[in-house]
Amino acid sequence: MSDAPRPWVEAYAPATVSNLGPGFDCLGLAVNGPGDTVRARRSDTPGVRLSAITGDGGRLPLGSEENTACVAVAAMLSAIGRPELGVELELDKGLPLGSGLGSSAASACAALVAAVSALQLEVGIETMIDAAREGERVACGTPHPDNVAPALMGGIVLIAATDPLRVISLPAPDSLYLSIYTPGCEVATAAARSVLPERVGLDAVVRQAARLGMLVHALHVGDLALLGEAIVDDIVEPARAHLIPGFLDAKVNALEAGALACTISGAGPTTFALASDEGRAKALLEILEQAYTHAGVPGAGRVEQVGPGARVTSRALH
Amino acid sequence: MSDAPRPWVEAYAPATVSNLGPGFDCLGLAVNGPGDTVRARRSDTPGVRLSAITGDGGRLPLGSEENTACVAVAAMLSAIGRPELGVELELDKGLPLGSGLGSSAASACAALVAAVSALQLEVGIETMIDAAREGERVACGTPHPDNVAPALMGGIVLIAATDPLRVISLPAPDSLYLSIYTPGCEVATAAARSVLPERVGLDAVVRQAARLGMLVHALHVGDLALLGEAIVDDIVEPARAHLIPGFLDAKVNALEAGALACTISGAGPTTFALASDEGRAKALLEILEQAYTHAGVPGAGRVEQVGPGARVTSRALH
Do B166 and B182 share a structural domain? Predict the structure, then answer.
C-alpha cells in the first residue's frame, strides 16, 4: 500500500435497445453511438465510492447504495470474494435518464469494466452481467438483464435463462439500421412496469414465443423482412403505448413509410424503427421526429447500427 | 365424366412429435417411422366420402363431418373454391389414437396429399396446413398447427404465426436421435388441454419465449447440448405430468442416463428423450420402457430421426 495516486482507467458503455418486440426482458442490442463513461482508480479504503457525476443535471445520487454504478461494482467485488478492495469512481453521463436507452445499464457496465481494469481483476462475463443486474434492481426495482447483457457483450444478445444466467450472442445483419428517437418526455422504468399485465392468456404465450423463435431464425438467415415481421408485441407494447404521447401516430407513419418494424425501446419513451439501408433509416428518423413534434414532445434522435459492448477507452488520465 | 373406375392414389404421412418443450402449439417435427396411409380417387359425386378405415380397431367415425381426413379434404376443396369436386377415401391407420404422436394430423395430411394428387390440383402449403388444422379442430377441439405443419412439410417446423399462417423450416441436426416411447395408457388431447392453465404470469412468458429463442439458435448452430438445455417447459408439462403414470420417474431416469432432454410429445402419453448418437438413444429407450413397465403401463417404442413429410407413395393400386 502506498499513498502515491493510482492511475485512472476510463471505460465506456453504449446505449442499448431492449425488448425488440417479443423479447421482453430477454433480448437487447448495443448500438454504435452515445453511451456513459466511467473513470475508476484503486483506493486504499475498502468499498466503492462515487466521487463525481457529470452530465446528469444533478439528478443522480452519489450514495454508494443508491447509484447503479456503485451497486454493480460492489456486487461484483462481493461475487468474486474481494469485498476488501477499494475503488473510486467518476461517472460522466452521456445518456438521458429514463429514456429507454439503457441509461442505468450503461453506467453500471462502464463502471464494472473500468473497475475490473483498475483493480487488475479477471471476472467472467456472467458474473459481470449478474453484478450489473444488481444495479438495475436499484435503478428500477427489477434486475432485468436485457440492457446490461448487450451493454457488456455488444451485438444482439438473447438472455436465454437467468438462474443460472445463460447468454447467447446472435448474428447481427450488416445492413440493419435503427432510427432511434427519444421524445421529450420521460417514462420511469418502474412506472412502465406497473402498467404491465400480471398474467396473460396461454394463447399470448404461444404467440410471443413463436415470434421470438422467428426473430432468432431471421437473424441467423439474415432476412430483415422476416425480422421486421417478428418484431410484434401484443403484451407489453399495448400496455405502455399510452404512456408515450404520439407513439401510435409515430408508429403508423413509420410503418406506412416502409419501416420493417417500429416499437418502443425498453420502457420507453425512446421509439425505434428498423430499415435495411441508411437512406430509409434517415427518412424514418424524420418521420418519428415529425410525429413527436406534432404531439408536443419534440426530442432528439439518430440513425445507428449494432455496435460493440463496454470497453476500456484510456488509462492514466489524470 | 365417365363411369370407368378412377385410379387410386396412395399417400403416407408420418408421426410427429410436437411442443418440444417451450414450443407448445408452435413447434413440431416429423419422424422417419410409422404413419398413416390414405388412398384417394376421384368420384363423380360432389363431396368427400370415407369408405373404409382399417387399423383403428373400429374406433374412428366414417362420417364425413366427424373424421379428420374428410374434414381436412373438404376444407381444402372449399378453400380453393372447388366444393363441386368429389373424392373417395380409404384410411389405413398406422398410428395409435390419443398417443401424442399426431395420429389425427397424420390421417388428415395423408388424405390431403392423396386427394390433391388424385384430383390433379395445385394447392399451396399454407392452404394445405390450414385445411389440416380444420381436421384437428374436429379431432380435439382446437385447430392446433404443431402436428399438421411438420406432418406435411417434414423436418422441424416453427409455426411463427397462424393468422395468417407463417411456417418456417428449421435446420435439423444430422446427429439428433429421438427415443420415443408410447406407454399403454391414453390421454385424449381435449382432456390434456382442459388441465392447462388459462393464464400464466409474465415471468413465465419471458422464460418460455427465451427458451424457444435458445432452441431455434441451437438448431441453427447445431449445438445439441444447448438444444437439450432449451427443451424445458414449466407451463404445460407440469400441468400434464400427472395424467401419465410413471412419467416423472421415466424423465428422471432418462436425464440421469444422459438424455439431452426428456418430455411429453404433444398431449402425451408418448414420451421422448433426445440423444446425439444412436447407441445412447437405444439405451434411453430401454430406460423409458423400464419406467413405464414398472408403472404398470407397458407400451411400445422406437428410436427415430427427423424425417420427411407427407408424400404420394403409389398410384393406380387397385
Answer: no
Q: Is residue A311 part of a domain?
A: no
User: Would residue B3 count as lying in a domain?
Assistant: no
* Among candidate residues A134, A155, A170, the one where a domain is terminated: A170
Based on its alpha-carbon atoms, the radius of gyration of chain B, rounded to whole angstroms, reads 19
CA nearest A144: which of A266, A297, A285? A266
Same structural domain, A215 and A124: no
Within this chain, do residues A74 and A13 fall inside the same structural domain, yes or no?
yes
Prediction pTM value: 0.95
Same-domain pairing of B20 and B161: yes
Residues B196, A205: C-beta atoms closer than 8 Å = no
User: Cβ of B200 and A205 within 8 Å?
Assistant: yes
The string over B265-280, giving b where at least 16 C-beta atoms fall within 10 Å of a residue's C-beta and e elsewhere, is: bbbbbbbbbbbbeeeb
Q: Above 0.90 for ipTM, yes or no?
A: yes
- Does some domain include residue B310? no
Cβ atoms B142, B133 nearer than 8 A: no
A156 touches chain B (CB under 8 A): no
One digit per residue, the tens of pLDDT, for chain A of length 318 reads 455 678 999 999 999 999 999 999 999 999 998 999 999 999 999 999 999 999 888 888 777 778 999 999 999 999 999 999 999 999 999 998 888 999 999 999 999 999 999 999 999 999 999 999 999 999 888 899 999 999 999 999 999 999 899 999 999 999 999 999 999 998 877 788 889 999 999 999 999 999 999 999 999 999 999 999 999 999 999 999 999 999 999 999 999 999 999 999 999 999 999 999 999 999 999 999 999 999 999 999 999 999 999 999 997 655
Closest chain B residue to A208 measured between Cα atoms? B209
Q: Which residues of B9-24 are buried (b: 16+ CB within 10 A; e: fewer)?
A: bbbbbbbbbbbbbbbb
